[in-house]
Amino acid sequence: MYMLDPLIEVDRVISELRRGGMVRVEQSGSSIVMLAVDAVDADNFKFLSQFDTSPIGLVLTGTRLNVLGIDQSDRPISVLTSAHNLSLELVEFLANPLSVLMSPPSLDDLNIRDANALEASCITLAKLSRLLPAALVIQDVPMTDIPTVKASLIDDYMKNAANSLTQVSQARVPLENAEDAQVIAFRPRDGGIEHLAIIIGKIDPLKPVLVRLHSECFTGDLVGSLRCDCGSQLRGAISEMSKSGSGILLYLAQEGRGIGLVNKLRAYQLQDSGFDTVDANLQLGFDSDERNYLPAAQMLQILGIHQVRLMTNNPAKVDSLQRCGIEVSERVPHIYPSNKHNDEYLRVKAKKSGHLFEI
User: Fold this and answer.
1) What's the CATH number for 166-254+291-353?
2) Range list of H helices, 193-336
């Protein structure tokens, strides 16, 4: 019998969630039905509410509950239920990051408990889907024709996808500040989102290679947003590599520190309401940085690179890459002038995220 690839199994439920559908998460004989909060409306909420034998639970990150002031414990993921059943209004308030602008409903009947392994996997799945890390769940009820996935496959997805990356294309692409350049595309085995390597000059793999890990930034890289320094860092890194003779810029599909473009725009809206960069991510229910550097390590290993001079202001990036098996022989500072739109953003990077530069 044909066995479905574990990565493709997860991709199928990701697609279903992004279309607003429900999926089943199972493991060891237990299962739950999940609906991403991003997709909740009056109709599907009413549908879930009809199952009297299984009350609806709202799964949220501890980060989200902390910023709401509802639960200050160190629980990473919690499930909320209500003695009188959750209402759509209450779900909207608890899960919507813009609820800080709403009048809070009564929370008197709210119950909070630790999430079990299946419920925790639902949060991981929502993040993989680039949706808010929040989900409605009910104990498995009679539903047919909904995609099903094992929780263990969800939990292993990032590692498996990174380990399965292969080089799929390569082309010479002369750049404005680096004419001797080529771009190599890497794709995971499930056909998911590609990561890119921009190779400048001739690389000597026997010496530490100048490398920049650059997470994609549509706003900064492509349309020239002044809210961040990403565009300056991207073009500046390529220029510096060209001047030094060679280098590799890994362009990683991890928009918005790993939360996705839509959620990054939500974070921008929160920032315009007074939150800083880190606090806006926490308000959304994410960690301050959700990026994963396993894909970067795998790409470097495929390219035969095991020792790098890492172009970054972020010591955490150095530590993360080394934990993935790449030796970092030197951290190369990568600092560009601020402007009136990103000055505070850079200050927060230094103060809260440990970036090493003077603002």
Assistant:
1) 3.40.50.10990
2) 230-244, 255-258, 261-272, 277-284, 294-302, 315-323
The annotation status of 179 as a binding-site residue, yes or no, is: no
Catalytic (active-site) positions? 289, 291
Please give the Cα distance from 79 to 81 (Å, whole number): 7
324 is an annotated ligand-binding site residue: no
Neighbours of 331 (CB within 10 A): 17
Strand partners, 186: 167, 195
Q: Does pTM top 0.85 for this prediction?
A: yes
The residue ranges of every structural domain in the chain are 6-155, 166-254+291-353
The percentage of the chain sitting over the pLDDT mark of 90, rounded to a whole number, equals 72
Q: 330 a known binding residue?
A: no
Of the candidate CATH numbers 3.90.870.10, 3.40.47.10, 3.40.50.300, 3.30.70.20, the domain formed by 6-155 belongs to 3.90.870.10
Kindly tell me if the per-residue pLDDT of 104 is higher than 80.
no
- Degrees, nearest 5: CA angle 277-283-286: 85
